[in-house]
Design brief:
Rossmann fold, alpha/beta, 2 domains, 45% helix
Length: 407
């Protein structure tokens, strides 16, 4: 009798171990399929109202998490504002948005996996991504799978590829090459060392800047990159770059690790200037360096808090109230883009026809109220890129100063 009871107990324990193993295996599988999922505050839907799911895949963990969170914040603010205002109507039908976001850790293969998951589980007509590698990974199949990409990247190749269902949100970075180069050469000299992020975006930026720098009579004395997903101490890389006595360092990537590179360069005695890739923001870098003094001589894009578009001040106030900090351009542009997509859906008469929505993006831009214009976007080009005037800024004598760009 005791033997039977013992055997039964052992069987129960074995079953529990198997169940536990299955649970662990299932958890691992879920994670490998695209990362953790979060959703915006679920909209309160009244009888007769319908919900449209909007997808997002970006870095919500790891060294680029700060950047990813702020892109998502801009979307979240727009979605919640639209829903709280009663949603929007098309042919008498009221719709509200549900924002579904997945962490891709800044890895293109994860972005692709996330996109497939968002399509299968949430039927998302639009998926936003804030990095060129992830965008290019989705472009492999988005036209076949019939969904729009809200592409937050200044990489010109994502629109030059001719993908008919891609909307590039910020201005293309090739417009920065001339003013960045002119400012750095005139104020610091012609010897440049390149230490940008090792992402595809960083590689593409470097491949554009290096030959342009040389065409203007400059010399590239060091050309390497930093993998911010792996490297946390940049001492060796920065030291090797400074051994070549550059006048200018080309740096960039997410704001926080980029600022650490600048700070370490100063600590190692570098007194020259910085060309700061447009992904990094000078005001966000200050939170790491502690002051603008360490960023003296930098040329980059104008921080949103130093801009004066019709809806900028109101957006900064709303963002500050919700998140307790100043917004960056990535949040502002996503807020604008979400509102433009909504207006385009209204003009297209559809929430689930990506081709029709894309065809009415100009109508969406034209219908955007001034109070929503955190940035003023005049038009969308035939290739799908938003057209926004370039605004640059430098750090001089410990302060941000704006730089005029000739059109």
């Amino acid at each position: 009798m005791r033997i039977l009871k013992l055997s039964a107990l052992l069987l129960v324990m074995a079953a529990l171990f198997v169940m536990a193993g299955c649970i662990d295996n299932n958890s691992t599988q879920t994670s490998s399929e695209g990362g953790s999922e979060t959703q915006s505050e679920a909209p309160e839907v009244e009888e007769g109202e319908e919900v449209v799911n909007i997808g997002y895949s970006g870095p919500l963990s790891g060294p680029a998490a700060y950047y990813g969170e702020r892109t998502l914040n801009g979307l979240t603010l727009a979605v919640e504002e639209i829903n709280n205002n009663g949603g929007f109507e098309i042919d008498g039908q009221t719709y509200k948005y549900n924002l579904v976001s997945l962490d891709d850790k800044y890895l293109p293969n994860e972005t692709a996996a996330n996109a497939k998951r968002l399509l299968q589980e949430n039927d998302t007509p639009i998926i936003f991504s804030p990095h060129s590698g992830g965008i290019k990974a989705m472009q492999v199949f988005n036209e076949q799978e019939n969904f729009l990409i809200g592409a937050y990247t200044s990489e010109p190749a994502v629109t030059e590829a001719g993908n008919k269902l891609t909307v590039r949100i910020p201005p293309s970075y090739d417009g920065y090459l001339d003013p960045f180069t002119n400012y750095a050469m005139e104020n610091h000299g012609k010897k440049m060392a390149a230490l940008p992020t090792a992402s595809q975006y960083g590689k593409d930026w470097t491949e554009a800047l290096v030959p342009y720098w040389e065409e203007q009579g400059g010399e590239v004395v060091y050309n390497s990159s930093i993998d911010f997903s792996k490297d946390t101490d940049f001492f060796t890389l920065v030291t090797n770059a400074l051994k070549e006595n550059p006048d200018v360092l080309f740096i960039g990537g997410p704001s926080e690790p980029t600022a650490k590179v600048a700070k370490q360069a100063r600590e190692l005695g570098f007194e020259g200037g910085f060309i700061v890739m447009d992904q990094a923001k000078l005001d966000e870098m200050k939170s790491v360096t502690g002051s603008f003094e360490q960023l003296n001589g930098s040329i980059g894009v104008t921080p949103l808090t130093y801009s004066d578009y019709p809806g900028t001040d109101a957006f900064i106030e709303k963002y500050n109230e919700k998140y307790g900090e100043d917004p960056g351009s990535e949040a502002g542009y996503h807020y604008v883009a979400m509102n433009v997509f909504m207006e385009a859906m209204k003009a297209a008469g559809s929430v689930d026809d990506p081709e029709a929505i894309r065809a009415h993006m100009q109508d969406g831009l034209d219908a955007l109220p001034e109070e929503k214009q955190v940035y003023t976007v005049d038009e969308i080009g035939e290739n799908g890129g938003f057209s926004t005037a370039l605004r640059l800024a430098a750090v001089e004598n410990g302060e941000i100063v704006t730089i005029d760009v000739e059109e």
